[in-house]
Amino acid sequence: MAFKLPDLPYAYAALEPHVDATTMNIHHTKHHNAYVTNVNAALDKFPELKGLGLVDLNKAVGTAAVPADVATAVRNNGGGHWNHSFFWTVMGAPTDSNGPSGELKAAIEGAFGSLDEMKAKFNAAAAGRFGSGWAWLGVKPDGSLGITSTPNQDNPLMAVADDKMIPVLGLDVWEHAYYLKYQNRRPEYIAAWWNVVNWEAASENFAAAKAGKVFGA
Ligand SMILES: [Fe+2]
Protein backbone atom coordinates (compact mmCIF):
# COMPACT_ATOMS: atom_id res chain seq x y z
CA MET A 1 0.00 0.00 0.00
CA ALA A 2 1.36 3.36 -0.98
CA PHE A 3 2.07 5.98 1.65
CA LYS A 4 -0.04 9.15 1.51
CA LEU A 5 0.56 12.75 2.47
CA PRO A 6 -1.52 13.38 5.60
CA ASP A 7 -3.61 16.52 5.93
CA LEU A 8 -2.43 19.09 8.43
CA PRO A 9 -4.60 19.08 11.57
CA TYR A 10 -4.95 22.91 11.26
CA ALA A 11 -4.82 25.68 8.65
CA TYR A 12 -1.49 26.78 7.17
CA ALA A 13 -1.85 30.11 8.98
CA ALA A 14 -2.68 28.54 12.35
CA LEU A 15 0.87 28.82 13.71
CA GLU A 16 1.26 32.52 12.86
CA PRO A 17 3.12 34.62 13.75
CA HIS A 18 5.69 32.09 14.98
CA VAL A 19 5.68 29.88 11.88
CA ASP A 20 4.32 31.66 8.80
CA ALA A 21 1.63 30.32 6.48
CA THR A 22 3.81 30.36 3.36
CA THR A 23 6.49 28.27 5.02
CA MET A 24 3.88 25.81 6.29
CA ASN A 25 2.27 25.54 2.86
CA ILE A 26 5.55 24.89 1.01
CA HIS A 27 6.84 22.65 3.78
CA HIS A 28 3.74 20.45 3.61
CA THR A 29 2.79 20.47 -0.08
CA LYS A 30 6.30 20.46 -1.54
CA HIS A 31 8.85 19.10 0.93
CA HIS A 32 6.77 16.54 2.79
CA ASN A 33 4.97 15.56 -0.40
CA ALA A 34 8.30 14.86 -2.09
CA TYR A 35 9.35 12.49 0.71
CA VAL A 36 6.09 10.58 0.27
CA THR A 37 6.49 10.39 -3.51
CA ASN A 38 10.11 9.30 -3.24
CA VAL A 39 9.65 6.62 -0.59
CA ASN A 40 6.80 5.15 -2.63
CA ALA A 41 9.01 5.13 -5.74
CA ALA A 42 11.82 3.39 -3.81
CA LEU A 43 9.47 0.70 -2.50
CA ASP A 44 8.06 0.06 -5.99
CA LYS A 45 11.28 -1.85 -6.64
CA PHE A 46 10.86 -3.94 -3.48
CA PRO A 47 7.16 -4.77 -3.11
CA GLU A 48 7.89 -7.06 -0.15
CA LEU A 49 8.80 -3.96 1.87
CA LYS A 50 5.42 -2.39 1.24
CA GLY A 51 3.89 -4.63 3.86
CA LEU A 52 5.94 -2.90 6.53
CA GLY A 53 4.19 0.08 8.03
CA LEU A 54 6.00 3.40 8.18
CA VAL A 55 7.20 2.89 11.76
CA ASP A 56 8.64 -0.56 11.11
CA LEU A 57 10.21 0.73 7.90
CA ASN A 58 11.96 3.46 9.91
CA LYS A 59 13.11 0.98 12.57
CA ALA A 60 14.56 -1.18 9.78
CA VAL A 61 16.82 1.61 8.47
CA GLY A 62 20.37 0.40 8.95
CA THR A 63 19.43 -3.29 9.03
CA ALA A 64 19.60 -5.98 6.34
CA ALA A 65 15.80 -5.77 6.02
CA VAL A 66 16.25 -2.75 3.74
CA PRO A 67 18.11 -3.74 0.55
CA ALA A 68 21.26 -1.75 -0.25
CA ASP A 69 19.74 -0.53 -3.54
CA VAL A 70 17.16 1.54 -1.68
CA ALA A 71 18.80 1.98 1.72
CA THR A 72 19.60 5.65 1.20
CA ALA A 73 16.24 6.44 -0.42
CA VAL A 74 14.34 4.73 2.39
CA ARG A 75 16.47 6.36 5.07
CA ASN A 76 16.00 9.86 3.65
CA ASN A 77 12.44 9.67 2.39
CA GLY A 78 10.89 7.14 4.76
CA GLY A 79 12.51 9.15 7.54
CA GLY A 80 11.26 12.40 6.03
CA HIS A 81 7.72 11.05 5.81
CA TRP A 82 7.57 9.85 9.43
CA ASN A 83 9.37 12.91 10.79
CA HIS A 84 7.04 15.41 9.12
CA SER A 85 3.87 13.41 9.84
CA PHE A 86 4.89 13.49 13.51
CA PHE A 87 6.04 17.12 13.45
CA TRP A 88 2.68 18.50 12.26
CA THR A 89 0.87 16.85 15.15
CA VAL A 90 3.11 18.23 17.90
CA MET A 91 2.25 21.80 16.91
CA GLY A 92 -0.91 23.85 17.16
CA ALA A 93 -2.27 27.37 17.44
CA PRO A 94 -0.34 29.50 19.95
CA THR A 95 -3.58 30.21 21.82
CA ASP A 96 -3.91 26.47 22.48
CA SER A 97 -0.35 26.04 23.75
CA ASN A 98 -0.03 26.03 27.53
CA GLY A 99 2.64 23.77 28.95
CA PRO A 100 3.23 20.21 30.04
CA SER A 101 0.95 18.74 32.70
CA GLY A 102 0.47 15.53 34.62
CA GLU A 103 2.92 12.70 34.13
CA LEU A 104 4.86 14.42 31.36
CA LYS A 105 5.43 17.50 33.54
CA ALA A 106 6.61 15.29 36.40
CA ALA A 107 8.90 13.31 34.09
CA ILE A 108 10.44 16.50 32.64
CA GLU A 109 11.10 17.86 36.11
CA GLY A 110 12.51 14.52 37.21
CA ALA A 111 14.86 14.19 34.24
CA PHE A 112 15.95 17.80 33.75
CA GLY A 113 15.11 19.65 36.97
CA SER A 114 12.62 22.02 35.36
CA LEU A 115 10.80 22.78 32.12
CA ASP A 116 13.19 25.66 31.45
CA GLU A 117 16.21 23.40 31.85
CA MET A 118 14.68 20.85 29.48
CA LYS A 119 14.05 23.61 26.92
CA ALA A 120 17.61 24.90 27.28
CA LYS A 121 19.03 21.45 26.58
CA PHE A 122 16.63 20.86 23.67
CA ASN A 123 17.43 24.31 22.22
CA ALA A 124 21.14 23.57 22.41
CA ALA A 125 20.63 20.27 20.58
CA ALA A 126 18.54 22.00 17.90
CA ALA A 127 20.89 24.98 17.47
CA GLY A 128 23.99 22.79 17.58
CA ARG A 129 22.89 20.35 14.88
CA PHE A 130 25.30 21.20 12.06
CA GLY A 131 23.52 21.51 8.72
CA SER A 132 20.11 19.92 8.39
CA GLY A 133 18.40 17.74 10.94
CA TRP A 134 16.09 17.42 13.90
CA ALA A 135 16.03 17.79 17.68
CA TRP A 136 14.06 15.33 19.77
CA LEU A 137 12.63 14.85 23.25
CA GLY A 138 11.83 11.20 23.75
CA VAL A 139 11.56 8.18 25.99
CA LYS A 140 14.80 6.18 26.10
CA PRO A 141 14.90 2.37 26.28
CA ASP A 142 15.30 2.63 30.09
CA GLY A 143 12.01 4.55 30.30
CA SER A 144 13.51 7.93 31.16
CA LEU A 145 13.24 11.12 29.10
CA GLY A 146 16.17 12.20 26.98
CA ILE A 147 17.15 14.73 24.33
CA THR A 148 19.05 14.06 21.14
CA SER A 149 19.47 15.35 17.62
CA THR A 150 19.75 13.53 14.31
CA PRO A 151 21.20 14.54 10.93
CA ASN A 152 19.22 14.92 7.71
CA GLN A 153 15.95 12.93 7.93
CA ASP A 154 17.20 10.39 10.45
CA ASN A 155 15.22 9.90 13.65
CA PRO A 156 15.78 8.07 16.95
CA LEU A 157 13.63 5.12 15.85
CA MET A 158 16.18 4.08 13.25
CA ALA A 159 18.70 1.32 13.87
CA VAL A 160 21.36 3.78 12.71
CA ALA A 161 20.55 6.30 15.46
CA ASP A 162 23.20 6.92 18.12
CA ASP A 163 20.58 7.54 20.82
CA LYS A 164 17.49 5.36 20.47
CA MET A 165 14.25 6.76 21.83
CA ILE A 166 10.55 7.00 21.10
CA PRO A 167 9.88 10.64 20.22
CA VAL A 168 7.61 12.80 22.37
CA LEU A 169 8.48 16.09 20.61
CA GLY A 170 10.48 16.75 17.47
CA LEU A 171 11.69 19.96 15.86
CA ASP A 172 12.67 20.32 12.22
CA VAL A 173 15.75 22.54 11.95
CA TRP A 174 16.23 22.25 8.20
CA GLU A 175 16.45 25.72 6.65
CA HIS A 176 13.26 24.97 4.69
CA ALA A 177 11.42 24.99 8.04
CA TYR A 178 12.31 28.58 8.92
CA TYR A 179 14.35 30.44 6.30
CA LEU A 180 11.56 32.56 4.76
CA LYS A 181 10.78 34.19 8.11
CA TYR A 182 13.98 33.82 10.13
CA GLN A 183 16.70 33.55 7.43
CA ASN A 184 19.90 32.50 9.23
CA ARG A 185 18.49 33.12 12.73
CA ARG A 186 17.85 29.49 13.69
CA PRO A 187 17.92 30.17 17.47
CA GLU A 188 15.12 32.74 17.04
CA TYR A 189 12.99 30.15 15.23
CA ILE A 190 13.71 27.56 17.92
CA ALA A 191 12.70 29.99 20.69
CA ALA A 192 9.50 30.96 18.84
CA TRP A 193 8.59 27.32 18.19
CA TRP A 194 7.85 26.70 21.87
CA ASN A 195 4.83 29.01 21.44
CA VAL A 196 3.20 26.53 19.08
CA VAL A 197 3.99 23.27 20.86
CA ASN A 198 0.90 21.11 21.33
CA TRP A 199 1.48 19.82 24.86
CA GLU A 200 -1.63 17.64 24.79
CA ALA A 201 -0.15 15.76 21.84
CA ALA A 202 3.19 15.56 23.67
CA SER A 203 1.45 14.07 26.72
CA GLU A 204 -0.28 11.48 24.54
CA ASN A 205 3.03 10.65 22.88
CA PHE A 206 4.68 10.31 26.29
CA ALA A 207 2.01 7.95 27.62
CA ALA A 208 2.21 5.87 24.44
CA ALA A 209 6.01 5.84 24.48
CA LYS A 210 6.07 4.63 28.08
CA ALA A 211 4.03 1.68 26.82
CA GLY A 212 6.49 1.15 23.97
CA LYS A 213 4.13 2.52 21.31
CA VAL A 214 5.33 4.84 18.54
CA PHE A 215 3.26 7.55 16.84
CA GLY A 216 1.72 6.12 13.67
CA ALA A 217 2.27 2.46 14.59
FE1 LIG B 1 11.08 19.71 6.95
Automatic annotation (TrEMBL):
It is an enzyme of class 1 (oxidoreductase). SUPFAM superfamilies: Fe,Mn superoxide dismutase (SOD), C-terminal domain, Fe,Mn superoxide dismutase (SOD), N-terminal domain. Destroys radicals which are normally produced within the cells and which are toxic to biological systems. This is Superoxide dismutase. GO terms for molecular function: metal ion binding; superoxide dismutase activity. Residues 100-204 form the Manganese/iron superoxide dismutase C-terminal domain. Residues 3-91 form the Manganese/iron superoxide dismutase N-terminal domain. The keyword Iron does not apply. Mn(2+) binds at H27, H84, D172, H176. It catalyses: 2 superoxide + 2 H(+) = H2O2 + O2. GO terms for cellular component: cytoplasm. InterPro entries: Mn/Fe_SOD (IPR001189), Mn/Fe_SOD_BS (IPR019833), Mn/Fe_SOD_C (IPR019832), Mn/Fe_SOD_N (IPR019831), Mn/Fe_SOD_N_sf (IPR036324), SOD_C_sf (IPR036314). Belongs to the iron/manganese superoxide dismutase family. Pfam families: Sod_Fe_C (PF02777), Sod_Fe_N (PF00081). Keywords: Metal-binding, Oxidoreductase. It comes from the Eukaryota. Its EC number is 1.15.1.1.
